[in-house]
Amino acid sequence: MEIVTSGDRPDLHEKAAAAFKERWPEFIFHDATSKKYMSRVKQHFGGFDITVLDNGAVAAGGWGVPIPWSGDADDLPSGYDEALVRAVQAREAGIPATTLSFMAAAVASAYDKRGLAKTVLQELTRRAHEAGLVHVIAPLRPTWKHRYPTVSMAEYAAWARADGLSIDPWIRTHQRMGARVLGPAPRSMVIEGTVAEWEDWTGMVFPATHDYVVPDALNLVRIDVDQDRGVYVEQNLWVQHR
What we know:
The protein has a single domain, classed as Aminopeptidase, CATH 3.40.630.30. Strand 4, helix 4 (116-130) and strand 5 form a beta-alpha-beta unit. The protein is built from 7 helices and 9 strands. It is of the alpha+beta class. The relative contact order is 0.16.
C-alpha cells in the first residue's frame, strides 16, 4: 500500500470521489457550507488530505482540517460545518491551530474489512503530531444512527455492548484507537433544498408538511410544502483521540 496526498496526486480526485461516493447519501453532497469553503480547504490543507493506493487503485482515503481549539468541550465547533469555517477563517487570519479535526474517512467497497479506515486515521494523526498539533478530534457520523432517527445523539452514543464498547461500528473503531466521547455535535451539517430537490435526492415523495424519516438521514428531515422547503439539521458525535 502507498499513501499519497491530494497535492502529490491531484489526478486521483475523480477516481477517489467515485470510489467513496457510495458511502454517503446524495443529500450530504448538498451542504452549502461545504460548497462555500471546500476550495479553500483544498488550497490550505492539502497535507491532511490522503489517499491509500493499492497498486495504483484507490483503496481508502480521508482528510481533516487544523483548527484552533482550547481543549474545552464548551469551545468545540457545533459540528462539521463550523469546523470547516473555523479552520479556513483561522488560517486566513493567521490564528495558530492547535487541533486536527478528522472530517471524513472512507474505504472503497472492494477493500472492506481490511482495517484501512484505521490506517487512514493513524496516518492523519501522525501528520497532526508532525505539524505540532496537540489535539485530535472528530465529528463522527455513526454508521448505524440512521436506523434510529428519532433517538437523540446523546442517547444513542450511550448505548453500549456487554464489553462496554458502543453498539455502533464506527464509534467502536475510534474507541479501539483510544478515543473518548466528548458529546453531540448538535448542528453538524445543515442541508436545505426545495421539496423537488429533496425528492430527487432521496427518491421519496413528500406530499404534506411533516417531519420525515429519510433513508440514511441520522435525524428527521423537516419538509414544509407551503414554503417549498426542506431542512435537515444533522447531529454528529464529537470524540477526542489520545
